[in-house]
Amino acid sequence: MTRPRIAVLASGGGSNLQALLDHFKQLGDARAGDIVLVASDRPDAGALRRARAANIRAVTIISSFTALGDELDAILERHSIDIIVLAGFLQLVSADITRLYVGRMLNVHPAPLPDFGGSGMYGKRAHRAVLASGVRMSGPTVHFVDEIYDHGAVIAHWPVPVREGDDEQTLAERVLRAEHLLFPRVVQAVAAGDVSLRADGRLSRPFFRDDAALPPFDPALDDATLGRQLDAAHVERATNSESQIPIR
Question: How many angstroms separate the CA atoms of 160 and 215, rounded?
Fold first, then answer.
């Protein structure tokens, strides 16, 4: 079976990349895609080291911001990429690429969208905004990517409680743990064709059965138990037909 070829773009340490690699390794032959390329705008990014350790092609994007789109497009074409996964990539991907990969590019954001998204709203800035707002729930959001920062159709969000006395660091650690469990499962679902983007910009079907299917993230539970909660809340397609993602 030919699986979709996945590129992961990352600017930082690559912990979400590692979560993806670990999840796909655990799935074995049941994985719906293959990560074949990791690209970064920073030559010292930990994500590139993780890629090399996993024998995955690692590439540094050396163009200036204005030329980023042309170089990235050439890299994606050269490696016959079917799906792009943004895992802490801090550059705005060009409109030409987002249009080319509509419904095939995903991003994970560390806070609820659209309330805590947009240009400059990343990392600690997003957590700081959540804390300043006084909301009681934060949590990672996985969405399809369009030409606007944090704007595409939301695929999945996992509510993570904001605790009394939280600061940016403690909230970030709790949300990141949830990201590492949620994000790989959504990537798997998109690669498998379980979730896709319709022409009208809506999801073909929800990732979770309903809003009540997934309880809020409970940091007292171990990762295996939390993973089972996610798997129980997500319903795969009844058929075993091949992925709906166009394969190059």
Answer: 10
pTM: 0.92
pLDDT tens-digit series, residues 134-150 = 999 999 999 999 988 88
> Considering the domain boundaries, does residue 55 fall inside one?
yes
With respect to residue 247, please indicate whether it lies within any of the assigned structural domains. no
We report the CATH number of the domain holding residue 115 as 3.40.50.170
Q: Which two tokens stand for residue 33?
A: 């895609």
Cα(75)–Cα(236) distance, integer angstroms: 32
Contact indicator for 72, 92 with CB cutoff of 8 Å: no
CB of 190 within 8 A of CB of 245? Answer: yes
**Domain range enclosing 157:** 5-204
Which residue carries 């204005």 as its tokens?
66
**Domains of the chain: total:** 1
- Would you say residue 75 lies in a domain? yes
Q: Which residues are part of the catalytic machinery?
A: 109
Q: What is the pLDDT of residues 25-77, one digit of tens each?
A: 999 999 999 999 999 999 999 999 999 999 999 999 986 555 467 889 999 99
| Residue 230 covered by a domain | no
CA distances from 200 to 20, 118, 134 (A): 29, 22, 34
